[in-house]
Amino acid sequence: MNAKTAQRSGAGAGNSAIEKYFESTEAALDGLDAYLRDEDSPLYQHELVGAILSLYIEMLRQSFRAWKNHAAFSDKFRIGRAESGYPVFQHVLDLAKDATVAESRLKEMPSADDLREEMIDFILKKKKFPAPMQQAMAERLYLEDLQDETVFRPFVLPTTVKVSVNPKSGRPYYIVHWGSYDGSAHLPLCYIAVIEDSSDKMIAQLVGRNGKLHDQLDIPLPIEGLLNPELAHQFDDFCEKNSSYSLTLATIASNMDQDFPTLHPTQLRRVVMGPFYSSGVTQHGSVVTRILDKVSKADNAWMLTWTLQELFAISETPAKWGLWGSTPAKQTYHIDTDDLDATRMGVSAYEKHALIPHEAYQAVYASGERDAVFEGYRTHVVSSGRVLRDF
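Structure (tokenized):
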């Protein structure tokens, strides 16, 4: 979307398409966050999973806040209108690049207070709206947004959030998450992995004689990177190279199993946070577009979908050591071959979800297209700040 074709967002801006888009993304992220924080949520009953996903939602929220200010002073703002409904990958790269120079650029700009005074003086003297100064203020706010470093990056480095011991194997295991904003699909992705570590050094350091974590260990979780320090940098590189949306979970897990002889990924999840549909902006399909266009309030004319993919190991081929060579332990993963979509995704199971405001859901229902729009999705309706599930 070209920002010049609509009024710029911010103080004094009209109800433009770009402004509607940012209103709807904010409402969608608020709704998704409310869903995750509901202790009765059937999808994220595991508290740790909900907490992890909330981190990525906050990154997206901060990114959209920065993008909104960026669109108010830049010439162009592009969205994957017929695909993801999210800003294109270049805008994610721009956030990462601009964050590195935000501090120095802010020092060269007038303060926010000085800009406000200039705007007031301009209005009083010229009797016009101070568009150039408003754009300067938007740029300042944009750079300030980037200083806290919580925006969604092209690649979000792995973080270890839990350490325990598998009583069956006697190995320590880590729960690790990382993220990626896919450059081709323009979609934010979150990965969560359960990884056992069979390295002698880590077993000696972490596992006591009772087969549990050493009592005296005080691990200050969360920890940036993989807990195993000898593999942490290599693991970061692996995740960055193997986080593409085009790769199936089976491929990613098998690559990890092969590249790290002492790491054993027993479970891998991927949350695909999109596509996103917004009236007047995205063009995913004639049915959805036509229905959302009938919704009266802009902040209710949207729909957010997401997919949870899961892969788990069902067995392990033991390591073999001999004079003529050795073979490390290898995981065997379950793929639901009875489901064509699961086979295509390379997963054991998956769930597709849709989150939609009550007014928009009523429009879908009234259209008689409810089954066509939500076929295969678990549908959740946002109403008065609450999420009504499984419609």
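The chain has 13 helices and 13 strands. The first strand starts at residue 155 and ends at 165.
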